[in-house]
Structure formats: structure tokens, C-alpha cells
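Appendix B. One record, verbatim.
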Amino acid sequence: MDTTELHKLFNAQTQEIEISLIRQFDEQVAPIEGMIRLTLGQPDFPTPQHVKDAGIEAINNNFSFYTGMAGDIRLREALANFIQVKYNVSYDPETEILSTVGATEALATTLLGILNPGDKVLIPSPFFSLYEPLVLLGRGVPIYIDTTENDFILSPEMIQSAMDKHGDKVKAIILNYPTNPTGVTWNREEVKAIADTLKKYPNIFAISDEIYSELVYEGSHISLGEYLFDQTIVINGLSKSHAMTGWRLGFTLAPKTITDQIKKVHQNLVTSASSITQFAGIEALKNGMDDAVPMRLEYQKRRDLIYEVMSDLGFKIAKPNGAFYIFAKIPEGYIQDSFKFCLDLAKKVKIGFVPGVAFGKAGEGYVRLSYASSMAEIKEAMKRLVAYMKENAPEI
């Protein structure tokens, strides 16, 4: 077969997307000896022991068969209770909760379940790099809302402006808070204001990615489902709250009419989430409701250290109140191309940051670093960053 013609055989949508620039850059700098990689959003804490024990018990008891496609009812009941206690939203575990293979599959299943070709999806930018390709795979059209001028806070006015421009073709908006890559989150008044704006458009789905809901430093997380239940599809999971990234357990929470439809996609993509992982998830949700607290306290210490050092170096940062990321604007006089800046930093002082352009055009000129690494590594990384900025300081 002529390889020059091979591209014609593939899904056109697949050819439009690229491998994540986050992963590309991480793999590029990983081989550098002595590299401190503050690139990936993966907790450096182990899964809590009681959760691991539950997984082991499931294996020993031969809990190795398919569950129902929506997940073990005990898991869904545990999640419903967790969400009610934590975020004051009630979901019927029988009909309004779907267990998925991580939050990633929850997002994919949702978008494939609701999009028709040409549907527009509003995405506040900078944004988590997964959103754009998933919209494209669903044959949707991403529409970006630049939030940089408002310290990355999405406002009702921004949503209204996008709706005025794109009107009836908008099918959904993807919301993410606390936000990857900025760590910015919303207070109760801001959540309610966004909900009130979206209520004016009852035919629009609000896909609310709340995977970092347990990592809010001051105040508490407010779920969009509390104020916009009928339109909202909440995405969540245990990767960040219980340091279970590799276990792959996520959820959708939405009204029955929505869940019924996206469940069909889920069934045909994966059948069901891992039974062993689900059993561990029951333990996490029932007896580990506050497992995130010690992690959150440690993340806050790391955030404060990085914020202070980088602010002193001239980086402009909207101080994050959630997740475990710093999104910092490169000071004037230094390399402004975020990819080139991060590559130069990696080569000269062996620190791995993610180029801001990996999170959309609005992220150009910024860098993202994850503080889901040990305090010792972070202190050393900041020491190296100070040296780099001094060595490469622009001449006055």
C-alpha cells in the first residue's frame, strides 16, 4: 500500500488531533540525567492502605467478574452518600450514577453521547489538553473562551458573549474547577452566577469536570450540580482525592434522562469498570471520606513555597486555591515561546515544566508546573530556577 495515500483510510477526526503536548514534552525531557520533572498531574502519595487492602481482598475473594454496566450498586450507593455529605447534591444511585474507567472515559462517554456533527462546545481557555481532542472525536467544534484577562476566572459575561456569537449551534460547555492548569476555582457566588446564566439556555449541557473537588485549600468546593442539576453532567473520580490514578475509576453524575443515553456509549466502549477497582472504590468512599486531607495540607505547603519563590522572580501568577498546579507567566525579557523556554530550562538546569501552549493558544507565554512532587524535589527545583533566571536575566 502506498503510504502517502494511507492517511485517506483513517478517521478524519483522528487525523485532526495530536498526542498530548504534555506527554510529548515529558517524554522528551525524561531521559535527561538528574531531571526534576514537575510535569505530570499525578499525586506522589500512595493509595491509602485501607483501600489497597480492599483491592487485595477483592482479588483473594475472586471478585473478578463483570459488574453491571453502570457499576456495582454498592459503589454507586457509596458515591451518592459521599456527594450528598460533601457537596449537598442528591443523586439516585440506581439511575443517575455511572461508574467509568477513570474520569477520562467519563468525559469521552459523555461527549460521544451528546454530540452531533457540527455541534459547538464552549471551552474556557487555558484548558486541560484532553477536552479539545475529545470534542473533535465526537465531531464537535471547540469554541474557546479566553479567561486570561480575568485571572482565569470564567465570568457570566464571557459565557453570554460566546452565546450571543454562536447561538443555537452550542450544544455544551465544559467547565473545570479547580482548574487544570491554573489551580483557580470558584466560590459559591461565582458558581451560582454561572448556573444562572446557563439556565437561560436549557438545551445546553454543562459538563462539569470536578476531579479536583477534594483539593480546595481555602473554603470548600461547590458543585455545579447544586445549582444547575437538570443540565449538569458532573465528572469526578478517585484519582486525585485518593491517589488512585492507576486504578482507573471515574464517575458521571447526571439526571436519569441523560445517564440513560451516555450509559449506552459506555457499555459499548468498555462494558464496565474493573470489578476489583470498584471494590476498592467502595472502601475509599465509605471509610476514606477524608483521605484527601493530609495530602491537601501538604500540597498547600508546596504551593506556598513555589508561589513565593516564583513571584519574587517576576513570574505573574494567579494564586491557585485548588488542584496542585502553578500556572505562571514568563517574565518579560526571557524567552517568550513557552515550548522553547521550557526546553531551555530543561537543558540548562534540569527542571521539567510544561509549556503553557499545551493548554491552548491562551496559554502561550506561560508555564505549568505540578507540585505533586516531594518537598525536597520542589526545593531543589526552585533553587535551580533561581539560578537559571539569574544567569539568563535580560540586560538592562
